[in-house]
Specification:
Elements lengths: L1 H12 L3 E5 L5 E4 L1 H7 L20 H11 L5 E9 L5 E13 L2 E11 L1 H44 L8 H29 L5 E4 H14 L5 E6 L7 E4 L3 H15 L4 E10 L5 E8 L6 H4 L11 H4 L4 H11 L3 E8 L2 E15 L1 H9 L1
Parallel strand pairs: 7-9
Antiparallel strand pairs: 1-2, 1-5, 3-4, 4-5, 6-8, 8-12, 9-10, 10-12, 11-12
Helix pairs in contact: 4-5, 5-10, 6-7, 7-10
Length: 365
């Protein structure tokens, strides 16, 4: 008797919504939290049936679950929608299991948590994300169009025989700044898309990605020459990434080309598997001005630092971190020469990869 009283106290004291549904869909029992949440009295609930408290679109699905439970099954992680007496939708999640008395199933018992606040928050977040994506796309699209118009007009001016030659340098500098603005806008769009979508992970040939990124970076600096030294080769390593991996290496190469004052820019890349792990360690090293120790921690987050020496990196490194985080990769920054940041920068990436044995097994399937 004391045990029964304890059980009843626990049932009535919990904030979970507890109900017992009989074979005819009427209620054998509901607890205090159920009554208070749905707004019914202890007398009213006895005249109700399951369909009376379920959102119309959920009735058939939930009745099928109840039917399975009354046959002896247990169902977990259920989400459904109750409707309160005043018409308010109550989002719940919980479990259903059979109630047995003397080895006979007499009802389907459900324990549910009210998740209405969480659901509304999720809906608002989805709505806000969609709205932000729309405005970012609209902004970037219009900025790109404006930049293209300015670019076209500047090129026409430069080709005109009447354009003063002494002003040509200023116009070309303006075109460089215009390119920076376009790249920042493009990076913002990419960051927005990466945050909103699940990455489509696939096997990518690392050397193909790196060489393509290097070519694109060199095109951005026609007055400089990149000397890329690496032990990478075609089909040597297949990494698990997505289409944005090229942006990672492009941003690293672009920063090296931009900040190295020499016309001949030396960049070195080496890669090696980390034993007993699924990761490939990739080191990208340059001989530029480097990054000071106190700035290394925040260099990937342009929103938390405003140090003049690294603000020129723009959103490039932030984009890198966003991309790598999206598919479980890592990056950190070190000195190319330990203890001397002035001798250049070393970026260390950890990317998941497919080793030779895994490739063979995949091919046999």
């Amino acid at each position: 008797m004391e045990q029964m009283q304890l059980i009843l106290s626990l049932i009535e004291g919990t904030n979970d919504l507890i109900q017992c549904v009989k074979h005819d869909s009427s209620f054998e029992f509901v607890n205090r939290a159920w009554l208070e949440t749905l707004g019914y009295s202890d007398v009213e609930f006895r005249r109700l049936h399951l369909k009376d408290v379920l959102f119309p679109g959920q009735v058939k699905i939930h009745e099928e679950l109840i039917s399975e439970v009354l046959k002896g099954e247990t169902r977990t992680n259920i989400e459904t929608i109750f409707v309160a007496k005043d018409g308010t939708a109550i989002y719940v999640e919980g479990n259903l299991f059979p109630l047995r008395i003397e080895n006979k199933i007499v009802a389907a018992t459900g324990f549910f948590r009210d998740i209405t606040s969480r659901k509304k928050t999720e809906e608002k977040l989805i709505e806000a994300t969609s709205r932000n994506e729309f405005f970012v796309d609209l902004l970037v699209h219009d900025l790109m169009n404006i930049n293209q118009e300015i670019l076209s007009m500047a090129e026409i001016l430069l080709m005109s025989p009447e354009f003063p030659k002494q002003l040509e340098g200023l116009v070309r500098e303006g075109l460089v700044e215009l390119e920076k603005a376009s790249r920042i806008a493009s990076n913002i769009r990419k960051m927005t898309k990466i945050g909103a979508e699940r990455p489509r992970i696939e096997q990518l040939d690392l050397w193909s990605v790196v060489s393509s990124a290097a070519t694109t970076a060199m095109e951005a600096f026609p007055d400089k020459k990149m000397h890329l030294r690496t032990d990478l080769s075609t089909k040597k390593y297949s990494v698990l990434a997505d289409e944005y991996l090229k942006d990672v290496f492009f941003s690293l190469f672009h920063n090296s080309m931009k900040f190295d004052k020499n016309n001949d820019v030396e960049i070195e890349i080496d890669a090696e598997p980390i034993k007993h792990t699924p990761f490939l360690r990739i080191q990208v090293m340059d001989r530029g001005p480097g990054i000071a120790d106190e700035e290394k921690e925040s260099v990937f987050d342009s929103f938390t630092h405003r140090r003049e020496s690294i603000i020129g990196l723009g959103l490039g490194l932030t984009l890198i971190k966003t991309i790598l985080d999206s598919y479980g990769a890592f990056i950190r920054v070190e000195d190319r020469v330990d203890g001397d940041s002035s001798k250049g920068t070393k970026f260390v990436l950890l990317l998941r990869y497919m080793n030779h044995d895994e490739k063979q097994q995949g091919g046999k399937k």
